Amino acid sequence: MAVPPELATRLAGAHASERPDDWYEDTADEQLRFDQCLMADALRLGGPGMYTFAQNALNQPSGKLHELGNPGRTV
């Protein structure tokens, strides 16, 4: 469903961003949720080794979780 920008801003109320282009930027909360979902899928779909790895990753702080979920990739 398409909504004109002026209507979307009015519907969003005081919480609307002043920047119209920020929808594609990941926030720390969004990244954390993505990493949690990635590890939850590994728990559910992986074998015993992946289960242990994912369970350990989910018990880490958000920075370490991201590092474990994205090996070899810098942010």
Please tell me about this protein's structure:
With 75 residues, the chain is mostly helical. The chain has four helices and no strands. The protein has a domain of 49 residues. The radius of gyration is 17 Å and the shape is elongated. The two termini are 33 Å apart. The relative contact order is 0.11.
Any chance you could write out the topology, listing elements then pairs?
Blueprint: H1 5-12, H2 28-45, H3 48-58, H4 62-69
Main features:
single chain, 75 residues, mainly alpha, 4 helices, 0% strand, elongated
Helical stretch count?
A: 4
Sheet bearing the most strands, described?
none
H and E string: HHHH
**Terminal-residue CA separation:** 33 Å
Report strand %.
Answer: under 5%
What percent of residues adopt helix (DSSP H or I)? 55-70%
Mean pLDDT: 79
Extract low-pLDDT stretches.
none
CA-based shape: elongated
Give the beta-strand count: 0
- Give the radius of gyration: 17 Å
Task: Quickly give the structural class.
Answer: mainly alpha
